[in-house]
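Collaborator request log, item 7. Partner lab (contact: R.S.) asked for a structural prediction of DUF488 domain-containing protein to inform their binding assays.
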Amino acid sequence: MPVRIVRLGTPRHEKEGLRIGTVRHPPRGVPKKDHATQNWYDLWLPELAPSAELVKQARAAKTEEQWRLFVRKYRAEMTAPDKGRLLELLAALSRQADFSVGCYCENEARCHRSVLRDLLTERGAALEEQ
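Returned to partner:
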């Protein structure tokens, strides 16, 4: 029952379970009632999204150094007690339930979900292999 890291809006995998959107904003122009049926997410958890300032920084990152700076700052944001508890909860649930977490970005390597993958792994989460 490992957690999957997914791109929101893509077709769901078999046995994916609950899809959690870790994004700052809901998908534009999509009524709330259609978020799940259009494969965006079943549950919105913006608390695990980067701050607005960091989203801008990530989008502007052109070099590896700029990307590493974003990762460092995002990891720092995730050390807040409330965010840490959410990460611990997801890690624990990954050993007992089917679910996925995701973001809209096309390239996971340049998306906060790659960092979420690492943060969950560090907390002992069971993750689906890429």
